[in-house]
Amino acid sequence: MAKLTLDDLRKLRDSQRQQMSKRAPEAGSAVVIIGMGTCGIAAGAKKAFDAFVDEIDVRGLQNVVMKQTGCMGLCHSEPTARVVVNGMPEIIYGNVTPEVARKIIREHIVKGELVNDHIFDKPAVDIIKE
Amino acid sequence: MAFKNYILVCAGTACESDGSLKINEEFKKQLKALNLEDDAQLVTTGCFGFCAQGPIVKILPDETFYVRVKPEDVKEIVEEHIVKGRPVERLLYDKEQKNQKASVEEIDFYQKQFRIVLRNCGLINPASIDEYIAREGYAALEKVLFEMTQDDVISELEKSGLRGRGGAGFPTFKKWMFSKGVESDQKYIVCNADEGDPGAYMDRSTLEGDPHSVLEAMTIAGRTIGSDQGYIYIRAEYPLAIERLENAIAQATEYGLLGEKILGTDFSFDIELRLGAGAFVCGEETALLASIEGNRGMPTTRPPFPAVKGLWGKPTVINNVETWANVPVIILKGGEWFGNIGTETSKGTKVFALTGKIKNSGLIEVPMGTTLREIIYDIGGGIPNGKAFKAAQTGGPSGGVITEDYLDTPIDYDTLAALGSIMGSGGLIVMDEDDCIVDVAKFYLDFTVDESCGKCSPCRIGGRTLYNLVDNVTKGLAKEEDFKKMKEIAQAMQKASLCGLGQTAANPVVSTLKYFKDEYMAHLEGRCPAGKCKDLIRYSIIEDKCIGCTACARKCPVNAITGVVKGVHVIDQEKCIKCGQCVGACKFNAVLVN
After folding, report:
1. Does the distance separating the beta carbons of B255 and A1 come in below 8 Å?
2. Over the stretch B121-142, which tens digit does the pLDDT of each residue have?
3. Would the N or C end of chain A have less CB density within 10 A of its end CB?
4. Could you read off the pLDDT of B41-68 as tens digits, one per residue?
5. Going from the N-terminus, what domains does chain B have, and what CATH number goes with each?
6. B38 CB near a chain A CB, below 8 Å?
7. Separation CA A82–CA A121 (nearest Å)
8. Distance in Å, alpha carbon of B81 to nearest chain A alpha carbon
9. CA distance B511 to B157
């Protein structure tokens, strides 16, 4: 990409903001965001990531996007994953072992049921949110 | 969507002990009775980090947050909220103070945390500049370049009251103002990411989760003081943070947010990484600058301060990662907004790495003035295994301990200093009754003795001598007059050391000696109350309790335990290395420590 001008930057921000605000735009689609800080990786976030990808492949799910993010501070419950499914509340899961990852795909994403015992709350209110 | 509502019942240990299991059962019953099992899913969750108000029930998707719920309240929640969609007002959090507000979104501080520095951590993809930009990223730089003068920026910083988050708490605007005021052909911006305190990882997580926030802030500082070159000094032990920073610098350069003529203006700014080899003293700013210059990382006397004469003798603004991450938000929301958060003398928030004997260890960010009790019990969930709180250690090897008596002190730079500790960079280690305070002081002193650069004698010799004295205490060889000697050495180190490392190295000893004199005295009598100091303890097996299961003998790494199956076992004191494995192995509490 060429270097941005002020105008370009503002346009980019608007379009990206819209894209982020509807991370799961279509019905039946989902986004899974895994905490990939050092703490998450040390606790097995990469294995959980692989399990998510494998389960998505095995089931042939077309509309599930995998993403990574940094540490959200829930180090006591790493690995963590945020799951955004169209039409469902956004959920943060903790202690996501590969088995739990597969369960999240099976129950949360396919059937629309939350997975017991692994849900955590957002640690704080978002100051950027408008 | 499968369900209309989700009922989240906290099943964290604290809520469970307050009866959340019964609440769960009651919900099951009520949902069944009204045939709502297909409308609402009942879910048990991990800890919400708000244990003081438990048991907690949250209803999604409207995010209603009920506190102190009792089983008899469940029927009302189901009939009113789930069936009729009307929240049960009397169970909402903050109903008195905040005029019966309905949802979490409206209750600003229902969670004790407030995230400025960590605003993007765990939300955006750290490898994507686009996601950073979507969340107001580089909007502060935009404002600085096109709408503000250099003096405006400094004045916003002054209004914000932002103080250095590396530990010393020097007002940030002053550093910037001094550097701006000096005429020079070259000036530098430096980010101190040489985080080395045991138990601290705030800066690493910030860089890993939101690298662009630091790059943007450094660029803003470059514009403000008239510098075109920045360096980030980061330890080589942080490979992931380095990888993400390198990626972020490449992306920002590609977008023209770093490099020549940023956003079409005539302002240019570059950032390079410098990797530290992991010497703790390089977190001290003059030693850090020496290391960037390619010299051995040793401190020099101040003044002159780096703001006037820093890197290669040029004016240099050096701030810590967390300080930098605050800057874009201050520019965007204004210094006044920031200044409204926190206490009289300490504004904004502080990130703590909460570790040690605590249930919810993790990275937290709270407004200045939050009490230790709120941090440890509300956010941290308290001490695990029902043990008693003993002390919290702040400021790492430069800090001190805070005891139970001071749990309700609002934490800021000045209150901590008054208690004989320091804010430090944000490591917060919680200790319980099983931790020996003398052993803790020895641990920190061992660390600073090891990390002393050796340039000045108060630190090099004083540290070693002090360590030997504390070591003697843990071995039961000390005499009472040694305490006086320890205080004298500590004072000499505080007054005469060249840099912060030596000046603060004695703090853990001074602070523990002040608050735990009894425990030091016990060691003089040959007793370690916590059972930690190996030279003062002895493991033995209580004959009446031992059933001869052989569990301890199998666990003992040096075969010091003998005995036949179903017969009483004995520990050979000559062989015993006092590792304590047998205590954990015994299910009958038959191993005695004294």
Report:
1. yes
2. 888 889 999 999 999 999 999 9
3. C
4. 888 887 776 666 778 888 888 778 888 8
5. 5-106 (3.40.30.10), 129-335 (3.40.50.11540), 349-432 (3.10.20.600), 437-524 (1.20.1440.230), 538-593 (3.30.70.20)
6. no
7. 10
8. 17
9. 34
